[in-house]
Design brief:
With 100 residues, the chain is of the alpha+beta class. It has helices at residues 3-13, 52-60, 65-76, 89-99, and strands spanning 17-23, 27-33, 38-42, 47-48, 80-85. It binds zinc ion.
Length: 100
């Protein structure tokens, strides 16, 4: 098994994939709890906020293992859903952005 697969499996097994679901709009924000901070992943555009993301895209034309973890977690239905109200959306986003 490759190092990336190990990382992906431990993220999923440790339930570090979180779906923040805003209601009633059903907007989704996906994050993964990392060792030092929380990473924000956009599965639709294959974007991740971690520092390895751009490096991986430039070097290997491959997104980081967080992006892959999200798609695997979705497939296996192994993620935590945290529900929010829509009026919390903006403060949530600015919280993420200030954390990057
Ligand atoms: Zn990442």
């Amino acid at each position: 098994m490759s190092v990336n697969e190990d990382r992906i499996n431990s993220i999923i097994d440790e339930r570090r994939v979180k779906l923040h679901l805003f209601k009633p709009s059903k907007r989704e924000i996906w994050t993964i709890i990392g060792k030092e901070k929380e990473h924000w992943i956009d599965p639709n555009s294959n974007f991740c906020s971690c520092s390895g993301y751009y490096f991986g895209m430039i070097k290997n034309k491959n997104p980081c293992y967080h992006v892959k973890s999200i798609s695997k977690a979705k497939k296996e239905n192994k993620f935590e859903i945290i529900e929010f109200a829509d009026d919390e959306y903006e403060s949530f986003i600015s919280g993420i952005v200030s954390n990057l």
